Amino acid sequence: MGGSARNPGVLQRDDAPSQSPYQRLSQRMLDLSGDRGVLKDVIREGSGELVTPDASVLVKYSGYLEHMDKAFDSNCFRKTPRLMKLGEDITLWGMELGLLSMRRGELARFLFKPTYAYGMLGCPPLIPPNSTVLFEIELLDFLDSAESDKFCALSAEQQDQFPLQKVLKVAATEREFGNYLFRQNRFYDAKVRYKRALLLLHRRSAPPEEQHLAETAKLLVLLNLSFTYLKLERPTMALRYGEQALIIDQKNTKALFRCGQACLLMTEYQKARDFLVRAQKEQPFNHDINNELKKLASYYRDYMGKEKEMCHRMFAPGERGSTVGEN
Q: Which domains, and CATH codes, for the chain?
């Protein structure tokens, strides 16, 4: 797709003049709706499962009117497209039907008749009345939140009736949502999703033979929370979740590094050094860890220099502002 400015439905003049460009295009397209109201032409095949109802989708799209080269609507200029939920954020019936026919990585072209697009009235001033529109859509990814939403709405007693694998699956979905929000720099919203996942995992006890699965899932969420709180500039909370991660895996490099970063922000330099040296022991050539230790050494030198200067001023004889020797 790539945000092309030209309408892929505009055909050249040597095509048959008796039909409009969209009519000619529609002849080689697949009927999705059964009444030729939603037509599809696959440009690039995708892979994996089809989009599920109530999923949240990550897409790039451009919409065109017939005989117009420039898109009337497009999100291709955005660096990070917004996650949109079917049935809520996507208002075009045709687009929802089209997305339900797609797989991850697929790029497709769709024609939507007015009934499946903007209706008989259109959407002035951009969309004239009774317009057929063309959309190019690329499905980057999708997350199925319906199962997670239904499960989280249950009481703790009801959730306990499900096997651990169900809880792990729902928690993983919540964490994936958090990861997406984190990548969009929506750190507060990501924190909410991570905490939701952690609550599910904490609330559910696991039998001994499955304990390692629950602990692995908890560790990933705790690391995410520690990193998120660093981004939110709340190092105390970042340290708390980092230390909880270390209870599960005392040699986890990411947890040690996050705790070191948090202590550095809190100006607890000795604790920061302890964590970072432990992290360096696990990964001696890690560029980020070694840089953080250099940063710590620089901060510590500056801090000690200021401490010495303050002590010198306090106890220097005859200096203005001294706390002793003045009448």
A: 21-143 (3.10.50.40), 147-312 (1.25.40.10)
